[in-house]
């Protein structure tokens, strides 16, 4: 169902305040985790100022260890929804379990399926039964075909509002970067599928000073949008501080990204 052969035209996903796909370029930004009501409101203002039409933030966090911050849960979703509504933004947030689907329906515009859950087939089937747009992240060791097949689990349930996110893949050299950003995957996926392809330079590199260069490269790759992590006090971020852009760096980065997109 995701194949270009079956459906040659680009899928365009329409949200209340954004359009994703084709030649548009959609910016999504926010902290890795929703940390407090006040913090997400402040970060939403920064995100918006940089041209983001979607606010990101995790309320259910897939942490590597169970002893790390796990997210604020439903309260976090409520804080993020309010912050986005005040600024006329859409919300993208991760759910980790099929039991979260009703909550997602209540609070979010886009359901993010994290890299670690790319092949959580019961979760994919559950979101496939809704009409809520889904952003499916490429798994840590997921091939392009694995990603496309995971998307089929959603589409075959009847939900065709799917976008795919390249967020870097597990690599043999993770001393300087967290993952290897597979930018060739963007044009490859665009050849194979009609779904919007989004890049996530933050999780791909894991280090804030590498995010802007890879954001430019991601834009040049032809992606339909970008998702990026921001924080005003990265040293004290609840998660992923090392890769979070401070507001001034983010604002400069997005200015260049939109200028670059204009040239394409
Ligand atoms: C995130 O977006 O914060 C996240 C956990 O991403 P990924 O699933 O790509 O690791
Ligand atoms: Mn993160």
Count of spatially separate domains: 1
* Major sheet strand order: 3-4-5-6-7-8-9-10
User: Radius of gyration in whole Å, from Cα?
Assistant: 17 Å
**CATH fold node name:** TIM Barrel
- What structural class do the secondary elements suggest? alpha/beta
Report the sheet with the most strands, covering strand number, pairing sense and barrel closure: 8 strands, parallel, barrel
Supply the CATH architecture: Alpha-Beta Barrel
Poorly predicted runs: none
**Which CATH first-tier class would you pick?**
Alpha Beta
Beta content comes to 15-25%
Compounds present?
phosphoenolpyruvate, manganese (II) ion
Helical region count? 9
Q: What is the element string, with H for helices and E for strands?
A: EEEHEHEHEHEHEHEHHEH
Q: What is the strand tally?
A: 10
> What is the residue-averaged pLDDT?
97
Question: What is the strand and helix layout of this fold?
Answer:
Blueprint: E1 13-14, E2 19-20, E3 26-30, H1 37-49, E4 52-56, H2 74-87, E5 90-94, H3 101-107, E6 110-113, H4 121-128, E7 134-137, H5 144-155, E8 162-166, H6 185-192, E9 197-199, H7 201-205, H8 208-220, E10 225-229, H9 247-263
Parallel strand pairs: 3-4, 3-10, 4-5, 5-6, 6-7, 7-8, 8-9, 9-10
Antiparallel strand pairs: 1-2
Helix pairs in contact: 1-2, 4-5, 8-9
